[in-house]
């Protein structure tokens, strides 16, 4: 009984202390800051985890950024502004993005983040764009769930090696390294 009374008394004291403060709070006059406008500074929260970044070496202001559940983003001004890409595909989880440095219009995206954690997002294969990310074509490996790395041969763009994590929570027959020598038409584990 005494504990309940003490808790009630403390609660009432807290209310008495708080109420006078409410009437004396300073208000912000928005007329004093006419140029201040709210703006989005990018994806945040659980979908804000960046999983991959690739930069065009001949022009470092061109950046592609993949996120765990927030899709693929592109900047052509060094990161001052960002535009979403990969917005019409069946998955938004990006594990890796890779620019063909000899042909920047060709971009590869492996889906499904490869960072095992409690909120890991799975993907649906590997995609290729031949027009700088405006249109995408699924190039296989749909059952692999998480593609974490893509290495493209510097002299032969049709040869790629892909690291696949597979399921993060158990054995996966799809886990391993895959290679294509025909631009993604066929893959060999």
Structural commentary:
With 189 residues, the chain is α+β, with helices and mostly antiparallel strands. The chain contains 1 helix and 11 strands. It has one helix spanning 2-23, and strands spanning 50-55, 63-67, 72-75, 83-85, 94-99, 107-111, 126-129, 137-138, 147-152, 160-164, 176-180. The strands form 3 sheets. A 4-stranded antiparallel sheet has the order 1-2-3-4, with no helix packed on it. The protein has a 4-stranded antiparallel sheet with strand order 5-6-7-8, with no helix packed on it. Strands 9-10-11 form a 3-stranded antiparallel sheet, with no helix packed on it. It is flat, with a radius of gyration of 25 Å. The N and C termini lie far apart (71 Å). The mean pLDDT is 86.
Layout of strands and helices, then pairs:
Elements: H1 2-23, E1 50-55, E2 63-67, E3 72-75, E4 83-85, E5 94-99, E6 107-111, E7 126-129, E8 137-138, E9 147-152, E10 160-164, E11 176-180
Antiparallel strand pairs: 1-2, 2-3, 3-4, 5-6, 6-7, 7-8, 9-10, 10-11
- Major β-sheet, in short? 4 strands, antiparallel
Number of helices in the DSSP assignment: 1
Average pLDDT figure: 86
Helix content: 10-25%
| Shape annotation | flat
Number of strands: 11
Low-confidence stretches: none
How large a portion of the residues is in β-strands, by DSSP E?
Answer: 25-35%
Q: Give the SSE order as H and E letters.
A: HEEEEEEEEEEE
| N- to C-terminal distance | 71 Å
Radius of gyration: 25 Å
Structural class: alpha+beta
